[in-house]
Write a structure and sequence with these properties.
It contains 6 helices and 5 strands. By secondary structure, it is of the alpha/beta class. It has a single domain (34-144), classed as HUPs (Rossmann fold, 3-Layer(aba) Sandwich). Strands 3-2-1-4-5 form a 5-stranded parallel β-sheet, with helices on both faces. Helix 1 packs across helix 3 (57-78) and helix 4 (95-105) runs parallel beside helix 6 (129-136). Belongs to the universal stress protein A family. This is Nucleotide-binding universal stress protein, UspA family. Residues 8-144 form the UspA domain. InterPro entries: Rossmann-like_a/b/a_fold, Universal_stress_UspA, UspA.
Length: 145
């Protein structure tokens, strides 16, 4: 784990929990002077369903971009006042895996992620993205509920 924070990165998925995480990440970035970055992952399972349903692989890139734009816009709308977002990062695959891999490739990332309110049984059997991330993250993670 890096001792030096280089950026505050908020994991976004368009949910209310992610919006709360975005607000906290923006406050943290402003208070510490670190750049704020938005990160989302276009789920690989969604890409597979789109291809099975008839979306051409060549159109999949456009679907990913539209997904990213919608999620990033939702996160920006949740921010209080003008906030300078330094970068928008759109990845594709398993969300937990991609977030952890991003952190491994970007030492010094302070990740802020929302925790969804799944039932106790579902969390025990499937786990959540935030739980998987905190188990495997190589750096600082703040969970916002």
């Amino acid at each position: 784990m890096s001792d030096t924070i280089s950026a505050v990165v908020v994991a976004c998925d368009g949910s209310e929990h992610a919006s709360r995480a975005a607000r906290m990440a923006a406050d943290l970035a402003k208070a510490t002077g670190h750049p704020l970055k938005l990160l989302t992952v276009f789920p690989g399972s969604r890409a597979e369903r789109l291809i099975i349903s008839g979306v051409w692989p060549s159109d999949l890139e456009q679907e990913q971009q539209e997904y990213g734009r919608k999620v990033f816009d939702t996160a920006k709308e949740a921010l209080d006042g003008p906030v300078d977002v330094k970068e928008e990062i759109l990845l594709k695959g398993d969300p937990a895996h991609e977030v952890v891999e991003y952190m491994e490739q970007n030492p010094g990332t302070h990740l802020v992620i929302g925790k969804r309110g799944h039932s106790a049984l579902r969390s025990l059997t499937l786990g959540s993205v935030s739980e998987k991330v905190i188990r495997h993250a190589p750096g600082l993670v703040t969970i916002v509920s």
